[in-house]
Write a structure and sequence with these properties.
The chain is of the alpha+beta class. Among the domains are: 59 residues; 78 residues, SH3 type barrels, CATH 2.30.30.830. Helix content is 27%, strand content 21%. Strand 5 and strand 6 form a beta hairpin.
Length: 197
């Protein structure tokens, strides 16, 4: 600050000298006092700011337990401290809220020695005929290659452990198992109807 004041005085003196003024016209006593007051303003404002902070702390009941450092940045964010009464979250033993509430699917053991009907999905098969008016009703199911298979009640069909449950005059009801949204194994009925061309 003193260097700045000296430089200001020097510049003002040079300006007056170049303008043709004598040494008597250099800054007056009032100008010197104004420059000195200007130089003291930042420290005075800092002191007033510290006094204001202390008054606020006293009002809030904190007292002046923390000394105010004049070199600290007044606009800096306060350091984050964690309160001891803050509850802590631990995800151990809890399910992920962003995943479906499905239990891990029961792994099916690989089935061996599957019949040709058990290798096809039910949607890949079509019902082409029904023999209805006999003691043991039968139906004919055709695959996508055009091969026909005769089925009766209890015949395994489809990859989901399905079995023919009922044969009606124009449809076949198949009961198959599936795993629902919650991971439970359930049974459902799927029907195949004769497709008329």
């Amino acid at each position: 600050m003193k260097l700045w004041t000296t430089a200001l005085t020097l510049v003002a003196g040079l300006a007056f000298a170049s303008a043709g003024f004598s040494e008597e016209a250099l800054p007056s006593q009032k100008t010197k006092e104004a420059v000195d007051k200007f130089n003291q303003t930042p420290s005075a404002m800092g002191q007033k700011l510290d006094d204001l902070k202390a008054a606020i702390r006293d009002k809030l009941g904190q007292g002046s337990a923390q000394p105010v450092s004049t070199g600290a940045d007044p606009f800096a964010a306060p350091a984050k401290t964690q309160r001891p009464d803050t509850p802590q979250y631990s995800p151990v033993g809890k399910r992920d809220p962003f995943q479906a509430p499905m239990k891990s699917q029961a792994k099916r053991r690989p089935r061996e020695n599957l019949s040709p009907l058990e290798r096809y999905e039910i949607g890949q098969l079509s019902l082409v005929g029904v023999v209805w008016d006999i003691k043991d009703p039968r139906a004919m199911v055709e695959d996508s290659a055009g091969l026909g298979y005769v089925v009766r009640v209890g015949t395994p069909i489809g990859p989901n452990e399905g079995k023919i449950k009922q044969i009606k005059p124009a449809e076949v009801v198949i009961e198959e198992s599936f795993i629902d949204f919650y991971g439970a194994r359930k049974n459902r009925d799927v029907s195949m109807r004769i497709v008329s061309e």
